[in-house]
Amino acid sequence: MDNKKMEIIEAIKKYHTIIIHRHVNPDPDALGSQLGLKNLLKHSCPSKEVYAVGEEVDKLLFIGDMDVISDNKYKGALVIVCDTANISRISDSRYDHGDMLIKIDHHPEYEQFGDISWVDPSYSSASEMLVDLFLEYPEGFIMNKEAAKSFFAGILSDTGNFTNGNTTPRTLKMVSHLRTYNIQPERIHNSLNVKAKNASRLQKTF
Ligand SMILES: [Mn+2]
Fold first, then answer.
1. Which residues 6+ apart lie within 8 Å of 94 measured at CB?
2. What is the CA radius of gyration of the chain?
3. Which of 30, 74, 78, 128 has minimal CB crowding within 10 Å?
4. What is the DSSP string of 77-88?
5. 104 CA to middle of ligand 1, Å?
6. What's the whole-model pTM score?
7. 148 CA to middle of ligand 1, Å?
């Protein structure tokens, strides 16, 4: 039993408002982990308010867009920062305006922050960490196709299409689970590799 993971699950269950951040200049894992988590929580807990914040990148809008929220949403909120090793790289400086802060990251520990910090470089990606988290604690949490697509985009990108050494049996086990949600890997791969000018056209088909 991993206490840190369980503490994260308990915090997610406890808070009504959850605001998810990630690093500046987001890559597909930053957005995939952030939006995968948002989609999974919105699907699993419809009564909660779940937001994803930060700047948008045109060519990655197919993964999803950001929420624009007022400062008062942070009052009493849980803030989760995905895929970000250090504070100065967190997109949206309001990350510390909530009631509780959680760091979830797969980069080697660079700077510790958060009331709970789950950092594990044995994972390929933050997206893989989140799939593993909810597979381990399925009670009350349900994956859906939208979340699976976001997490898959993050894993695919951070593993270099599964060619990097960080692709482990666990990575592939997570992908095997995501594939059961009828995601279309070739379509996601194509969207990740399209030039920015074509992004809006592909958005419709993702
Ligand atoms: Mn990453």
1. 53, 71, 74
2. 16
3. 74
4. -EEEEES-SSGG
5. 10
6. 0.93
7. 16
Tokens representing 122?
């044995």
3-class SS at 179? helix
- How many A from CA of 111 to the centre of ligand 1? 16
Q: From the centroid of its chain, how far is CA 51?
A: 12
How does 99-134 read in b/e, with b if 16+ C-beta sit within 10 Å? Answer: ebbbbbbbeeeeeebbebbbbbeebbbbbbbbbbbb
- Which residues, in sequence order, are CB contacts of 180 under 8 Å at separation 6+? none
Tokens at 105, concatenated: 């990251």
Structure token pair of residue 54: 């930060």
Q: How far apart are CA 174 and CA 180, in angstroms?
A: 10
Distance 201 CA to ligand 1 centre (A): 26
Start-to-end CA span in the chain (Å): 37
Whats the size of the chain, residue-wise?
206
User: Tens digit of pLDDT for each residue in 105-149?
Assistant: 999 998 999 999 999 999 999 999 999 999 999 998 999 999 999
Model confidence over 17-51: pLDDT tens digits? 999 999 999 999 999 999 999 999 999 999 999 99
d(CA 105, CA 103) in angstroms, rounded, equals 6
